[in-house]
Amino acid sequence: MMEIDWNSVKEQLLYDAQNPLLFNNGFFVYFLSAFILFYYLFRKNYKHRAIVLSLFSLYFFYKASGSFVSIVILSAFFNYGISNWMYKVQKKGGKQFLLFLSVVFNLGLLFYFKYTNFFIEVWNNFSELKFNVLHILLPIGISFFTFENLSYTIDVYRGEIEPEKGIVNYILFLSFFPKLVMGPIVRAKDFIPQLKKDYFVSDTDFSKGFYLIITGLIKKLIISDYISVNLVNYVFDGPHLHNGLECLVALYGYAIVIYCDFSGYSDVAIGISKWMGITIPTNFLSPYQSKSVSEFWRRWHISLSSWLRDYLYISMGGNRKGKFRTNINLFLTMLIGGFWHGASWNFIIWGALHGTGLMINKMWTFLFGKVKLLPSGLSNFFYALITFHFVCFCWIFFKASNLDTALQFIHQIMYQFTFDGAYEYVENYKYVISMIGIGYAIHLIPDSISEKFIERQKHFPMVYYLVGMYVFIALYSVFKSAKPVMPIYLQF
User: Fold this and answer.
1) Cα–Cα distance, 248 to 167 (Å, whole number)
2) pTM: predicted TM-score of the whole model, two decimal places
3) CA atoms within 13 A on the CB side of 25
4) What do you get for the CA distance between the two ends of the chain, in Å?
5) For this structure, is 411 an active site residue?
């Protein structure tokens, strides 16, 4: 009779900083299996269901980030309490004060963990009085659940929702494990009401969930990781070692890497949620098909761009105070959005570039919006090509580890561009280049085709889903890297 190694089991159940729990972690299969079992057993009572889901979500976050799970619990209790207090206060001044406390608390947490050392370094660069950089670890997902807390208290302040009476539901809203680590950013008014409905998963929901999970895993674990490991990472680590052509191919590679990485993770989160009877909004809509920077931000990281629009851009006045102020508001929104991504001058530059792009887009539309400079089809292709390359240029600052590396990367493309050795380069990296092509081909598949396939798929027998899962596992075993590749947005 085989004995159980309880020490090994204990190690598997405890947090491991070197192997955090994510969708690409082997332990996640056991976690998800146990969760589905308990969730199904308590599916008929929404209160019991919420407790089970909350406990599993908090455990997931513990396995992903250790003791930082306490930050999620603390912020949940604080925002739950202050929102209920705010709702009871009659005077506007009192509500404003409580909202101010909420903003200070939430942004204070984010500022301490994410930006303290950045501002210490800035201070040290401009002052003779020096401070030592602190050893601060960044809790994963803090940028996402901070924005969710803020949207909740702001919605309560605006009178758009009533505060949640059950603390378990609020903890679940904040800690819901499919989206906790890397989004999408969910709003309480869309999420919490779904928790109180009877559990129901239609054939379409199951089919769509399976489609999103499998295609999301393929995008993240096969396409994105393979291109990252075999080309993108080491070109960006030392652009001076590569000519302009190699850098440009790596840039096109990174554009599809970040899309497949983040949209893939979002798809898995949305797909798992579908199997729970919970709908999370779509986060990506083929963004590289955009014909303007404005359209790009309606298609890329939709949950973030809509949050910035509703809670930052509109709060600053939006487009209600004239064209000049509108442009300033757009620029500042994107500048802050860039800084939200990380405490680095590169992210600030990235945000400023997109803010400038949005302003130019507005002015171009105002001046030439009704003028047809080219035939419609050719015009759309031309604008899409310009938008795509503008976005790619901005990705250089997003990916590069520092400003010097970004400038060196640009220098190589501009001044060291050559086709010498191009044949050998393509021959050596034919599989990576092919994978880049596959990534863009998947991106270009119209959503209508995907929806039609999902509708047909729901009539397939269960054996089809099992075979589909085994085929993915077989593909992953061929392409997986020696070490797991951490999701790009995990750092935010």
Assistant:
1) 51
2) 0.92
3) 21
4) 47
5) no
